[in-house]
Structures are given as structure tokens and as C-alpha cells.
Write a structure and sequence with these properties.
Length: 169
């Protein structure tokens, strides 16, 4: 069974289940619910409501009226004017043109740390920059990208660089 057929079956099952849920809700609403009576509140429910109302009254009276010198609430603060730089200023990363990088003889200096798979192409995150197949990286040409490794080529020789785990330096 191929992936497309499997996906279609899953979609059909999900749509069927959603349709059954809507049908059940409609039947319940139209035919079953009108005959139901709302449950009657017994004395324990009424006592619990009275107790909660009493607690609420005690807490409100203990807090007292709001004074003008009391701190602003979060909503009051949100309405005040924001400072010019509301967020922390971060220095911008220096932009390096990956195509003009100096060649490096050792592929171990390349850190393959991320993979982005898209419908029409894959991207590899190498030394913090994104590359696609055919790009040049420190004297190597990126020949293949997978989720587990990249294949680099230079002067006809190929080198496999595995993806680094998060715990690796």
C-alpha cells in the first residue's frame, strides 16, 4: 500500500467520524434533548453556593476600597505608553557570504546542525547558515542533503558529514 492510498484512507476515516459526531449531535438536539428536564438543585448545591458567596464577601471586605496610592494592576499598566525600546536590543549577527568563504582543508570544521525538508528542496544548516544542493561551502560543493548527513564533494572526492546531536559540541 503506498503512502497516498494510506493518507486517503485516514482522511476518509476522519471525515466519517466527524460526520457521525455531527449526526449524533443533531439527533440529540432535535429529538432527545427537548424531553429532558434540567436537574434540580438539592440542598447541598445551594449550601455550597451560599458558602462561596460568603467567602467572596469576606475577601472583598477585607481588601477594603482601592486607594489611589495602590499599585496599578496589569491591565492598567498595559494601557500606559510603552518606552521607545520595549524589547531588549540584540546585536545583529554579522552577515557572511557563504559563497565567498575561504576554503578549508578539513571537513571536520563544518558543523551540520539542522535539516529543513521542503516539497521542492532540502536545506542544510551548516555552521549556522542555510545551504542547498550545489552551494559551495569552504571549498566543498554540497552534493546531497539528508536528515542524517550531508555529502560534500571536492576535486572528485566525496566526504560524508553526519548531523550533530544536540549534546555534541
Amino acid at each position: 500500500m503506498n503512502k497516498a492510498t494510506s493518507q486517503k484512507k485516514r482522511e476518509l476515516i476522519m471525515v466519517t467520524m466527524a460526520g457521525l459526531a455531527v449526526l449524533y449531535g443533531a439527533i440529540d438536539f432535535m429529538f432527545i434533548a427537548p424531553g429532558r428536564q434540567a436537574p434540580k438543585q438539592d440542598d447541598t448545591v445551594l449550601q455550597a453556593k451560599a458558602m462561596l458567596a460568603g467567602i467572596n464577601d469576606e475577601l472583598t471586605s477585607a481588601a477594603g476600597p482601592r486607594q489611589d496610592d495602590m499599585p496599578l494592576t496589569i491591565l492598567d499598566r498595559a494601557q500606559l505608553a510603552w518606552p521607545a525600546a520595549a524589547f531588549i536590543d540584540q546585536p545583529q549577527a554579522s552577515l557572511v557570504d557563504p559563497h565567498k568563504a575561504s576554503p578549508v582543508q578539513d571537513p571536520d570544521t563544518l558543523a551540520y546542525t539542522g535539516f529543513i525538508g521542503m516539497a521542492d528542496r532540502n536545506l542544510a544548516i551548516i555552521n549556522g547558515l542555510d545551504y542547498q544542493i550545489g552551494d559551495r561551502i569552504q571549498g566543498f560543493r554540497l552534493k546531497e542533503i539528508t536528515s542524517t548527513a550531508i555529502l560534500l564533494e571536492r576535486d572528485g572526492a566525496t566526504t560524508l558529514v553526519p548531523i550533530q546531536d544536540q549534546g555534541e559540541p
